[in-house]
Amino acid sequence: MDFQRVDVVYALLFDTNTNKILMVFNRNGTWSLPGGAVEAGETLREATVREVKEETGYDIKVGNIVALNEAFIDKNHIYFITFHGQITKRPEEIPHEENIIKVKWVSLEEADRLMPYHPEGISKLLNESGANYTFQKE
């Protein structure tokens, strides 16, 4: 069976004032961090910034990688790369994005419950320094 490689990026955005994580409720009925598929010719960081802006309206700065998950779904071999993110600008209003039903700040406990694919919890990811990400130019 031939598998298509797909890279998906997410941003872990934490509000220290409220101790909440920014999450999105997707049209497919699942909760996730804001993010999405990397487009051709786009770096992982560029894709993360673009996807967060499209889905939530927030402008962010991308930090270290805090999680790397891998899955085979249908005929796709998917790498899910989660970055620490830092909000640089909040939107006046949340944009309407066709695949997103709701954008919501949730507690750490709720985030852990909604995202079981991080078995040690989102709070552990917040406390990790993560792995450096470097884009190597030719």
From TrEMBL:
Molecular function (Gene Ontology), one example: hydrolase activity
InterPro entries registered for this protein in UniProt: Nudix_hydrolase (IPR020476), NUDIX_hydrolase-like_dom_sf (IPR015797), NUDIX_hydrolase_dom (IPR000086)
Domain of life per record: Bacteria
Keywords: Hydrolase
Span of the signal peptide: none
PROSITE patterns: NUDIX (PS51462)
Protein name as it appears in the record: NUDIX hydrolase
